[in-house]
User: What shape does this take?
Amino acid sequence: MEEKYSEFSHTFTDKWADDEEITCAYQFRKPNKSEVNRLTKEAQKSSGAANHNLLITLVHPDDKVRMLADLENYPGLAVTFANGLLKASGFGDLGN
Assistant: This one.
């Protein structure tokens, strides 16, 4: 069975590049239970590395090189995209 990928995107203003608007979009597959468990375990040591590793695992091969270059320039993207993937997988605030 072929894995299904969905596009996730994020747009922000780079204040260090004359307020240039940056849009990053990549295709990811849904994380499975073992990948979420690995993220949780790795996050105890380094949440940044855990998010980065999750993205590398889930990103579509066609987007991987571009995403890695963007993560070098904008390291905060790892948290942004990892949180978006987890939210789309059922994680989030209950609002209670």
